[in-house]
Amino acid sequence: MSTRSGPRFEVVVKSDCPTCEAVVPVLARMQAADLDVVVHYQDDSAFLAGIGQLQDDRNLERSFHLGVDTVPTVVRREGTSETGRAVGWVRAEWESLTGLDDLGPDLGPWRPGCGSNSAAPGMAEILRARFSDTGLRSRTVEVAEPQDPVEVAFDRGWSDGLPVVPPTPERILRMLAGTSRDPQEVVGLMPPDLVPCTVEKVAINAVLAGCKPEYMPVVLAALEAALEPNFTLHGLTCSTCFSSPVIVVNGPIAGRIGMNWGLNALGQGNRANATIGRAVNLVVRNVGGGRPGEIDRSTLGSPGKFTFCFAEDETDPDWEPLATWRGIPPGRNAVTLFQGDGVLGVMDQGSRTPDALVRSLASALITVCHPKICEWGNAILVISPEHYGIFKQAGWDRRRITAALHDACTRPGAEVVRGAGGVGEGVPESRRNELVPKFHPEGLLLVRAGGQAGLYSAVLAGWPGGRAKDDSYPITREIIP
Amino acid sequence: MTSPTWVLHDPTSELDPLVRPRLRPPPSLEGRRVALLDIGKIRSDEFLDTVEEELAARGVDTLRVAKPTNAKPAPDEVIDRVVGEADVAVVALAD
Asked: What's the ipTM?
């Protein structure tokens, strides 16, 4: 503690900065003038030979508390208050701050400073976690070597079976920077335990999943869509069936965060696709308590219960995106949450007309849930570019393809009643003389995705909860930053 | 080394579930009322109709209660009726 009565000058420098080296004679002059000058060095002090009152700030604590983003920075303090600051070398400012004339006569009037080590990418959150209150409210778990934090996460049941990224305060703070929402805002009551789920808990699980901060708005929108009562997330999680949330992303954000709608869109290899879906499922597991073998009673499960998220190909201006079809204004970002199973590939390399292709795709769509079960499960049909090309060439748009598929999936009741064809499953006998649609009118969603080569499409079968069509259906929601 | 090298934040709800023992089944249904809860699955009614007939033949009083849909959890009023008006419940869970 200084016993001098005048102001104290705190100067932050680093050796890897030509301007810091250049101001060393100025610092010497200030100290020779009997000013109270403390010099905090961020790396090596060798270049400060002859300077007094050196303080080691290699841990950057003082730089953090002074809010330094450029070196050199000189801060004048009187008592506990800051009364002036100069950043880089600006002779007039240094002279005004110190009250000394002719400072640094060889330096010229101005030289830019360099980036402070405390402002290096990712450092802000590290320093905040180390030297201030993070504001995080979730309880902490301390892990000491030789324990491995990844193994600790497994041991505590935080994982879906794959390794997770350890949720350190720094990573959580970075994740929270991806949203403008307050960390303590409650997103909703997460089933099945109906626990209030905060933005902070979502961020922690997004860290576990491997998300980047810019994915947070998509993760939050997906969770909010999943929490709409008529998405029936509780039933979906606890069901004996196969399904889990399938997330389709529309809008410019898909490209901005690097999502995949092209080659292998439904598969592995893209960080955004993989981790957004994983984060949603981890929130259901960790916050909601939806763990397999406990209240998740799925008989066989599905790989989609790890993650199932992809973007729609919106590169063809003739194609109406899924979210637009479902009421979101064009050009906005949106997620559509669908209660779905895995992928049934449909390979048709022989149909060359839209009518033939519709009949072909319908033959696969009628297998959803079971070939003789009707108006129970919804479906997504993912149409690849080559199959879409057949429709586009004939001038068919989303509405026409959808209507034609509904027609092609409608069958005489006599073919699908219980017992017909020697199969016990089917619709009630009372429908024998009806024409029975396969899907409810809004139960068939088309999405464009896939690589340029391959006359394939894919059926994503829906959860039978869709039979209560007014109580359980897909949800589309705009993504709010 | 004793000092922690990592600090992690808990991703869970941080709930501490209260584990309660299940109630023992009553030794007899005599003088007790049995709720027959239909959760909304198809053919639940067929199953419960049969159970109701069997219980009626034994002189056991029954209460029919139904969830509006199997797709969502039971509303509070359904749970309250079962808890408040019956001693035992039979739940028709499957299709």
From this structure: 0.90
